[in-house]
Each structure stands twice: as structure tokens, then as C-alpha cells.
Amino acid sequence: MVWIKNGGGLTASDVTPEAVYRQRRRFMQAGAAMLGSALATSWLPAEARVSLGEPKPGPFSTDEDKTPFDDVTGYNNFYEFGTGKRDPARYADRLRTDPWSVAIEGECEKPSTLALEDLLKPHAFEERIYRLRCVEGWSMVIPWIGFPLGDLLKRFQPTSKAKYVEFQTLYDPKQMPGQRRAVLDWPYVEGLRMDEALHPLTILAVGLYGQVLPNQNGAPLRLVVPWKYGFKSIKSIVRIRFRETQPTSSWMKAAPREYGFYSNVNPDVPHPRWSQKRERRIGEFRKRRTLMFNGYGEQVASLYAGMDLRKYF
Ligand code: MTE
Question: How far is the CA of 187 from the centre of ligand 1 (A)?
């Protein structure tokens, strides 16, 4: 490192184009966060392509302690890279996220396939600190960077027949070695009812902890639906389809008695093989009580008024 004496009060931002300077600074922050960890820096190319700007704090954020970055990016479920919790961090560097495009199709006036850059262009990114409760019984608090899914969906003008939205992850066994095994019926598919998809809590995430999403967390674009079990929050999305009929998710196909379409976090409806009353927040020792709708009942309970949530689990 060469230090230049500060004669005229110049800083790096005065002599470097703003965008390059900001990018470089973000690279440096990313580097610092990764120091001492064995994680690959595979997501840096995406960084060069999609600037996160300076996300504003968004609504609905919890003030609970955030789960440490190393846990958020080192303990994952992403079966396309293996079923072990450490597999995604180890193998997801094989995923190429540039170029990336997303097809929007089905019941809408303006179906199109857009390059990620064009898909993201109109949206301002916000930080949303959400709880994520995995169906397996652990939870995290993650500072996502993203924007409301509803803002994106409306651009394609869903028709009156659009009652549901289906999402698909990339299918490419060369890049995703987990897809060479029939653990699930690939590609990974998830779905939401239209009102759930348009709910202001539902976001598409492009980053976390102020940085571009690491591949293991679902780069370059993933869903986050914080009142539902984590498996609804599908990663690395390449297709969004408006549908008249309810989609069948990969987990419903794999085990229909265990995983329903709604999958709202509900401590009173046990999984057939274990209770859902408690959860272990990653980093904590004692278990906590699981909250109805993962604590977002005030915002979403009305979506399910009159529904028997034991039947529609
Ligand atoms: N999306 C895809 N495509 N494949 C997966 O295996 N796992 C889900 C969800 N999205 C999964 C996925 C599950 S079970 C959980 S709990 C969350 O991602 C985990 O997200 P995280 O690893 O970013 O914490």
C-alpha cells in the first residue's frame, strides 16, 4: 500500500469515477467479511454487474439480533448443491450467475424473458431484516437486500385468470451437482397464491448484509416469504409463471402428507415426524417458542381468515 500525503484534501473518490470507487469499496468490504473463511468468492462477478447502490431501510424489519454473516452464508439448504448444510458454501461457486435471465410467462398481458439487469433496473433496493424459520426447526435473522415481488409482478400485467404464481430454479446438473441425484423432482418449484405474492412483506432478494447474494444463498435472485417455512423461499429463480390453478411444489410432490401448499409457520400444526412448537435460533443454545406466522400475524393473518389451517397446512 502506498500512502499519498493528503495535500489538497483529495480522497480516492475525487480521483476515481464514483461507480468504480463504490464498487471497489464494496469489493473491499466483501473481502473483509470473507477473511478467514474458506468460502469461495464466486459471487464477486455478479457484484461487478449489479450495483446494489445504497439500499434504504425498508419496512417490517425486526430489531432482533442478526445471525452472524458466517452462519447465514455457511449453514444453508440448497439441495442442488448437496443435502449437507455445508455443501452449498462448498460447491455453489460452480454456479454461473452472469449472464442470467428470467422468463415471466403464463396469465399476463406482457410475457417476456429479460436479462437480470433489465428485470432489476426499475426497482430501488431496500434492506429488510427478516426472521427465517426453516421447517427443520432452526431459524435465523437475515438482513436481506431486495424489493417487493408485487412491484415486479405488476409490470407484466397479470390477467384476471392469474390466481397463483409459480417459481422455478435453474435446472443445470453440470453446474448443480445435486441435480444428478433424484432427491427431488428437479427443477425446484414453488408457488404462492396471488394475494400472498402481492403482499408487501414478500420480497425478491438480490443481496444480504449489504452485499450481492452469495451463490449459496440463492444468487442472483431468490424469493423471501418470511411468514412461511424457509423452503417456500426458492433460490436462483429463472422462471415466474402466472397460473389459474394451484402449482404443485417440489416438496408437495416429494411428500404430500408432510408439505402442503401454504406452509405457513404454525406452532400448532406439527410436521408428521416432529413438533413445530419450538425452534433453535442459530447461535443460541436454548430453544425459543415458534410464533404463529413466524411473528408476522399482524400483517398476514387476514389473508387466511376463515380457512382451516390444519387442512390447508
Ligand atoms: N431453493 C432451492 N432452489 N433449493 C433448495 O434446496 N432450500 C429451501 C429454500 N430455498 C432450497 C431453496 C430451504 S429448505 C430453506 S430453509 C431456505 O432456502 C434456506 O435459505 P438460506 O440457505 O439462504 O438460509
Answer: 13
- Residue owning the nearest CA to atom 13 of ligand 1: 231
User: For the whole prediction, is pTM greater than 0.70?
Assistant: yes
146 closest CA partner among 65, 28, 50, 40: 50
Residue 217 CA: nearest ligand 1 atom is 23
- Ligand 1, residues at Cβ distance < 6 Å: 76-80, 132, 134, 169, 188, 217-218, 230-231, 233-236
Tens-place pLDDT, residues 209-266: 999 999 999 999 999 999 999 999 999 999 999 999 999 999 999 999 999 999 999 9
Cα angle 70, 74, 80; round to 5: 155
Amino acid at 67: T
Domain boundaries, the chain: 18-301
Report H helices in 156-257.
194-198, 250-254
Distance (angstroms) between ligand 1 centre and the Cα of 129 equals 17
- Whole-number Å distance between alpha carbons of 88 and 37: 14
Q: Determine the CATH number of domain 18-301.
A: 3.90.420.10
Query: What does the block give as the cell for 180?
Result: 444428478
Nearest Cα to Cα of residue 196 among 238, 166, 173, 157: 166
Cell numbers describing residue 242: 402466472
- Choose one of 78, 167, 215 to mutate for the ligand 1 pocket test, by most ligand atoms within 8 angstroms of C-beta: 78
